[in-house]
Specification:
Elements lengths: L1 H29 L1 H23 L12 H24 L1 H22 L11 H29 L1
């Protein structure tokens, strides 16, 4: 089962990168906010159909959730909006590596302090090195993008 979850997440990452690239290009024609709106409108329609046919939860449970948990919807929207803004400027890979580095940093802090009722996992040297290597990778990717952009402008 774990292997399938890794495979599903890998496929999710592939679709996220493709979506980032397409949305970045589309935003040049339609606008950043408009592109983000289209993504969420399409997602809402798609998920409404899924809920109708496959939903097993309680949609009205949204009304009972603590307000701080509802902030996750805003955070997801901000992530997509910032990604749509960033891809045309620094490229897909630099955008994705930046996002992953941000996820690693906040993920380590969430785990370490047990925020949001998560499992407590102490910060160790492996986690610190993972973040450090991700930041180093981001530096080299960004510098490579900058160099490529300068060479194409000559």
């Amino acid at each position: 089962m774990g292997l399938f979850m890794i495979l599903f997440t890998l496929i999710g990452g592939i679709t996220l990168s493709a979506q980032s690239s397409i949305n970045g290009t589309f935003s040049r024609k339609a606008g950043t906010i408009e592109t983000t709106f289209l993504t969420f409108l399409t997602g809402t329609m798609f998920l409404t159909i899924f809920i109708i046919f496959f939903g097993r939860g309680n949609v009205l449970g949204l009304l009972e959730a603590p307000t701080w948990q509802l902030s996750a919807a805003f955070l997801g929207t901000m992530y997509l909006l910032l990604t749509v803004m960033t891809v045309p400027r620094i490229g897909v890979i630099a955008t994705n590596i930046s996002g992953i580095a941000g996820q690693l940093v906040i993920g380590v802090l969430i785990d370490h302090f047990g925020w949001f009722n998560s499992l407590v996992i102490e910060i160790d040297s492996k986690r610190v090195f993972a973040i450090l290597f991700m930041i180093i990778a981001l530096y080299f990717i960004y510098k490579g993008n900058t160099r490529s952009r300068e060479e194409s402008n000559v």
